[in-house]
Write a structure and sequence with these properties.
By secondary structure, the protein is of the alpha/beta class. It has one domain: Metal-dependent hydrolases (TIM Barrel). The protein is built from 10 helices and 8 strands. Strands 1-2-3-4-5-6-7-8 form an 8-stranded parallel sheet. Helix 4 (74-80) packs across helix 5, helix 8 (183-191) packs across helix 9 and helix 9 (221-232) packs across helix 10 (236-250).
Length: 257
């Protein structure tokens, strides 16, 4: 049994084949998936998807890359988070890759999400790219550890992982961990404690080997788990069991179907 802890099934590449995506999940032993929000304008579609399928959960949040969209305040996020299928706040965080001026509006938005997570008692889904120092700093300043959560699609150093772990966060690996040039990331996968480990696809992006360059989908989280298992010298069954347990412990409002 595997869980895809972070995917975007609502994106056009996947939602147009909704039945097929869910069927291939089942065929590959992927029993549940968390469909993650990137802006509020598309949240109704995510919630409808989660309502149609007992094994799909939702989050509420606005991705740091999205500038031309509704800017949520705490009360708006809190109201949306009351939906019974919403199990997390995010994805949120900082991304200076596309916004190299390190805009203050990203930092303000991140603070809003952290505060909403603390108030709603739901974990955070955090995105960080070219912004690790500021991400960790704001997590400390806003007491993100009180909410807990996950550093999704982790590609940072072992030192950044250690800082996130010290704040009580989980570390989630995507298909990148299977890439040939990702040995440093596999070293981080070996370092993360067993009870803080998660796997994801971030589909439709970042398909793992042997599907690199193709449209990703939740069924492929099996290949991510295999890469993590190989790096840690453990079996796929062990990684599947512990990452599933970790998912339902972290996202406590998610109920196994």
């Amino acid at each position: 049994m595997l869980v895809d802890s972070h995917c975007h099934i609502d994106f056009p590449d996947l939602i147009d084949d909704e039945a097929g995506v869910l069927a291939r999940m089942a065929d590959n032993g992927v029993t549940h998936a968390l469909c993650v929000s990137v802006k509020l304008e598309t949240l109704p579609g995510i919630l409808a998807l989660a309502e149609r399928h007992t094994n799909v959960f939702a989050s509420v949040g606005v991705h740091p890359d999205n500038a031309d969209c509704e800017e949520p305040d705490e009360e708006r996020l809190l109201a949306l988070a009351t939906h019974p299928k919403v199990v997390a706040i995010g994805e949120t965080g900082l991304d200076y890759y596309w916004h190299k001026d390190a805009p203050e509006w990203q930092r303000a938005r991140f603070r809003t999400h952290i505060r909403a997570a603390r108030r709603s008692n739901k974990p955070l889904i955090i995105h960080t790219r070219d912004s690790a120092a500021d991400t960790i700093r704001l997590m400390h300043e806003e007491d993100a550890g009180a909410a807990g959560g996950v550093m999704h699609c982790f590609t940072e150093t072992r030192e950044v992982a250690e800082q996130a772990l010290d704040l009580g966060f989980h570390i989630s690996f995507s298909g990148i961990v299977s890439f040939k040039n990702a040995e440093a990331l596999r070293d981080v996968a070996r370092y993360v404690p067993a009870d803080r480990l998660l796997v994801e696809t971030d589909s439709p992006y970042l398909a793992p080997m042997p599907y690199r360059g193709k449209t990703n989908q939740p069924a492929y989280v099996r290949h991510v788990a295999e890469a993590v298992a190989k790096a840690r010298g453990e079996s796929l069954e062990q990684i599947a069991k512990l990452t599933t347990q970790n998912f339902f412990r972290l996202f406590k409002d998610a109920r196994p179907s």
